[in-house]
Design brief:
The chain is mainly alpha-helical. The protein is built from 18 helices and four strands. The termini are far apart. 36% of the residues are buried. Its main location: plastid.
């Protein structure tokens, strides 16, 4: 496939040249410069080196050096050189890639296929296999032709064609991260919940690391409930996650030429947007909400699709509890979906750093407690400004600040100490 960049040993020269550089190797690596140069350029990003370790064997000393993640400091003639932290993907470039994905969604309306791409890359995970990447999951292996040709992945080559320019623009972002970033962004941009994503996934390095066919769910198995449980339980997911994730069918259409299911066209799909045709699960099939559960439950519109694996959500007693809940409460659906989507996107992934990283700003720090003089006095009478200033001066003299109260009540301690001294004095005088 010409449109998909394959990072295999046979394509080392072109692949390594296309990998971006967002940081430099530590200066200490210069001691092994001679052994390193035949394999990589000193300006090559650490993440790119680590993403190809399965294909390119470096000397053990070099491996120890390039795996350093902390900031490296070197002083030379009074100057300081800082090397930025490098992970499997560049965090700043991931943020830029997300903006490009948002623009792509505005012009192509490709939300459904991007969601499906992320799901199908992650959904091959087998919790019973410990080794990576043999265990499957979110490792970017879906970019290889052998996996794209799996029946369940029909049409996903179009998703790769859409994302390839973004990958080319940000080569130090791994395919594994890009697929999951695109999937989560598509849900959010369609009006869905904010998904607590983390990034830093390594890529599988070649088609020999693709999972076998048959790992993904079928649309019309003989026993839909058992089939869904077999597939999702193998991933380590439960009934609640099965139903919540099924709710993503609120986006998109099924095309008979790809899946064998659905009508060629309906009144809801004849005019697009995007390529016309197919049969959608919902009327507004580019809007992420809980209408999927409402429409599946009512089943009043022949132009809306209901697969056997959809219908069973209101037939199986355990599934039905969640399906009924989501049909009535969109907030509950959004909450459970966001958690399930994030969990799915991490399945089988190998992260650098090991805990992954977020590209969203964390919650703002709580405002420090302000100094209020009256809190450190007794009685209900309002203190004069002069007294407040005096208390404040004493407060700051013992280590307090206007924005940071002392851990203990200094003034109360003084009062207690004076009281104790008074009692002791009276006892001595009495004697």
């Amino acid at each position: 496939m010409a449109e998909v960049m394959l990072l295999t040993p046979s394509s080392s020269s072109s692949s390594m040249a296309s990998l971006g550089s967002s940081c430099r190797l530590p200066p200490s690596a210069s001691t092994t410069k001679a052994s390193l140069l035949p394999l990589i350029s000193p300006s090559l990003c650490l993440s790119s080196v680590k993403c190809t370790l399965s294909s390119y064997q470096l000397p053990p000393l070099v491996l120890r050096q390039v795996r350093r993640r902390s900031l490296f400091r070197r002083t030379n003639a009074g100057s300081t050189v800082m090397t930025p932290t490098c992970f499997a993907s560049d965090p700043e470039l991931l943020k830029s890639a997300r903006q490009d994905i948002k623009e792509l969604l505005k012009t192509t309306f490709c939300h459904p296929i991007l969601v499906r791409l992320g799901w199908h890359d992650a959904g091959t995970y087998d919790k019973n296999i410990e080794e990576w990447p043999q265990r499957g999951g979110a490792n970017g292996s879906l970019r290889f032709e052998v996996e794209l040709n799996h029946a369940a992945n029909a049409g996903l080559v179009n998703a790769l064609k859409l994302l390839q320019p973004i990958k080319d623009k940000y080569p130090s972002v791994t395919f594994a991260d890009l697929f999951q970033l695109a999937s989560a962004t598509a849900v959010e941009e369609a009006g869905g919940p904010k998904i607590p994503m983390k990034y830093g996934r390594f890529d599988a390095s070649g088609p020999d690391q693709c999972p076998p066919e048959g790992k993904l769910p079928d649309a019309g198995p003989p026993s839909p409930a058992s089939h869904l449980r077999d597939v999702f339980y193998r991933m380590g997911l439960g009934d609640k996650e099965i139903v919540a994730l099924s709710g993503a069918h609120t986006l998109g259409r099924s095309r008979p030429e790809r899946s064998g299911w659905g009508k060629p066209v309906t009144k809801y799909t004849k005019d697009g947007p995007g390529a016309p045709g197919g049969q959608s699960w919902t009327v507004q099939w580019l809007k992420f909400d809980n209408s999927y559960f409402k429409d599946i439950k009512e089943r009043r519109d022949a132009d809306l699709l209901v697969l056997p694996t959809d219908a069973v959500l209101f037939e199986d007693p355990s599934f039905k509890v969640y399906a009924e809940k989501y049909a009535e409460d969109q907030d509950a659906f959004f909450k459970d979906y966001a958690e399930a989507h994030a969990k799915l996107s991490n399945l089988g992934a190998k992260f650098d750093p090991p805990e992954g990283f977020s590209i969203d700003n964390g919650p703002s720090k709580p405002e420090p407690e302000k100094f209020v003089a009256s809190k450190y006095s007794s009685g209900k009478r309002e203190l004069s400004e002069t007294m407040k200033q005096k208390i404040r001066a004493e407060y700051e003299a013992v280590g307090g600040t206007p924005d940071k109260p002392l851990k203990s009540n200094y003034f109360l301690n003084i009062i207690i100490l004076v009281a104790v001294l008074a009692v002791l004095t009276s006892l001595i005088v009495d004697k």
